[in-house]
Amino acid sequence: MAEIKEAKISDLVFDDKNFNKHTEYGMSLIEKSIRNNGAGRSILIDKNNRIIAGNGVTEIAGQIGLDDVQIVESDGTKIIAVKRTDIDLDSKQGREMALADNATGAADLQWDYDQLRQELDEKIMKDYGIRMPELKSTEILSAIEYNSCYYEPKEQPNIKLEDCINFDKFNAKVKALDEFQLSDDERKVLMWFCYRFLKIDFESVANYYAFNASEEMKKAMERLRLVLVDGGVDGFIEDELLRIVNTEIAVQYGDD
């Protein structure tokens, strides 16, 4: 025989990740039903008295002073039936309770889609017929982890501008051209291609800009967009941030 324990509403713990945000109208119907007819369906709690189902009913019951709780312990192998000894289904009150049970369920459902995404796989939601709305662009942006594109120089270095470039790969590619019989024009064009192998150390560039560059050199470096600074040329900061964000969206969510 299932064990029945007496408890109070205050002994129960609401679900802090409840998937149903409830509606104002639905909650008003629950209150109307409980006030007119008393409690009907049972709620469902876990082994720690945390409410799995029935958060809305419990909230309303507590508000109107229905504080006593009877807890029926079960391992899920039997159906628990709540028997109202004072009501006949074919009475006006019995039929009103049947109506309220269906009406409140439909009127008080407002999915918390953010919570659903965090707690459950999309396949499980599809199995239960829940169609997730597409994320809006603002929600996608909020979900992206953003790492600042700024580098803040910490100390004054002893650095030359040419130290900001690594020529190793460039020199190797230029030397490789000597292996081929090329015209001067062909060699000149391929030399241009070799420049893509120059590796810029942007951290060193930022340090040179901050501590060693003249004012005129700073303007030239800003014009070449070698550094990111507040009030950059032609909205450079804004353009670069938009490019970074758009790239992240394309990678994480697909580029339609």
What is the topological layout?
Elements: E1 4-8, H1 24-37, E2 44-45, E3 51-53, H2 55-63, E4 68-72, H3 92-107, H4 113-119, H5 122-127, H6 137-143, E5 165-166, H7 168-176, H8 184-194, E6 199-200, H9 202-211, H10 215-223, H11 236-253
Structural notes for this entry:
The protein is mostly helical and 256 residues long. The protein folds into 2 domains: 4-133, no CATH class; 141-253, no CATH class. The chain is 45% helix and 7% strand. It is built from 11 helices and 6 strands. A hairpin with a 5-residue loop joins strand 2 and strand 3 (51-53). Helix 1 (24-37) crosses helix 2 and helix 1 (24-37) packs antiparallel against helix 3 (92-107). It is elongated and about 105 Å long. Residues 232-238 have low confidence and may be disordered.
Please give a handful of descriptors for the protein shown:
11 helices; mainly alpha; two-stranded antiparallel ribbon; 2 domains; 256 residues; 45% helix
Work out the strand percent.
Answer: 5-15%
Number of helices: 11
Distance between the termini: 60 Å
- Main beta sheet, described? 2 strands, antiparallel
Share in helix: 40-55%
Number of domains: 2
Morphology: elongated
**Sequence stretches where pLDDT stays below 50 over 5 or more residues:** 232-238
How many strand units? 6
User: By helix and strand content, what is the structural category?
Assistant: mainly alpha
What spatial order of strands do you see in the largest sheet?
1-4
Mean pLDDT: 83
Name the helix and strand elements from N-terminus to C-terminus, one letter apiece: EHEEHEHHHHEHHEHHH
Q: What would you report as the Rg, rounded to the nearest angstrom?
A: 34 Å
